[in-house]
């Protein structure tokens, strides 16, 4: 092979393996943005800043949009957004963690609501049985047991929900692996999931 042609051949071959990527993946030719509402009263705007907010977002669905398009729900278990998750082990691990923590969050919040109902019923039963509608109806031992279940379940639910949000956020990033300790350069390698399958490499400074 002509030595003058060889460098051009290498650059062409290497260039075919590199895909210029968007912010959210190794080789996605579009930008995927996640978002969530804060609450229904004064924070109806869907924005990425609300992800992981454990005090307002426990019962609110996650949304995504492509290239500043319309917001759409990610679906049960992230079904609608799954095709946009980068094909890396890093993303797969975080996406599995997102689904697991989401299920745990729903379970804990459901248990919390049942405990709240139990607290109300136990308090009413105490007040009727003992003819005592004072504060003791809400703070007797049986009522306190349900109250503890309500507070504990709610805290676990919002905590797991916040962590699930962050897991999905990380899953969309593909991978974050510094080339060496203290370096600002980040290399990411994975398989292409766009229109032209292949190998994708990204260097971020």
Structure explained in plain terms:
The structure is a single chain. The protein is mainly alpha-helical. The protein has four helices and five strands. Strand 2 and strand 3 form a beta hairpin.
Keywords:
205 residues; mainly alpha; three-stranded antiparallel beta sheet; two-stranded antiparallel ribbon; 4 helices; 5 strands; elongated; disordered C terminus
- Secondary structure category: mainly alpha
As laid out across the biggest beta sheet, the strand order is 1-2-3
- Compute the average pLDDT: 76
- H-E order: HEEEHHHEE
> What is the terminal separation in angstroms?
35 Å
Number of helices: 4
Q: How many DSSP E strands? A: 5
Helix content class? 40-55%
Describe the global form. elongated
Write the layout of secondary structure elements.
Layout: H1 6-17, E1 32-35, E2 63-66, E3 72-73, H2 89-130, H3 136-139, H4 141-171, E4 186-191, E5 199-204
Question: What is the gist of this entry?
Answer:
This protein has helices spanning 6-17, 89-130, 136-139, 141-171; strands at 32-35, 63-66, 72-73, 186-191, 199-204. The protein is mainly alpha-helical. Strands 1-2-3 form a three-stranded antiparallel β-sheet, with no helix packed on it. Strands 4-5 form a two-stranded antiparallel sheet.
């Amino acid at each position: 092979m002509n030595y003058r042609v060889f460098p051009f051949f290498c650059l062409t071959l290497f260039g075919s393996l590199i895909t210029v990527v968007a912010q959210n993946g190794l080789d996605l030719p579009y930008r995927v943005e996640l978002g969530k509402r804060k609450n229904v009263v004064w924070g109806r705007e869907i924005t990425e800043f609300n992800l992981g907010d454990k005090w307002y977002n426990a019962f609110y669905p996650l949304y995504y949009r492509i290239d500043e398009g319309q917001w759409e729900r990610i679906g049960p278990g992230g079904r609608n957004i799954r095709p946009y998750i980068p094909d890396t082990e890093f993303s797969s691990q975080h996406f599995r963690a997102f689904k697991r923590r989401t299920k745990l969050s729903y379970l804990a919040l459901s248990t919390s609501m049942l405990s709240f109902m139990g607290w109300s019923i136990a308090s009413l039963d105490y007040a009727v049985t003992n003819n005592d509608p004072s504060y003791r109806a809400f703070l007797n031992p049986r009522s306190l047991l349900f109250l503890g279940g309500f507070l504990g379940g709610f805290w676990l639910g919002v905590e797991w929900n916040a962590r699930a949000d962050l897991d999905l956020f990380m899953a969309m990033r593909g991978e974050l692996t510094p080339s060496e300790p203290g370096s600002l350069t980040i290399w990411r390698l994975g398989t292409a999931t766009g229109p032209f399958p292949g190998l994708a490499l990204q260097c971020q400074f």
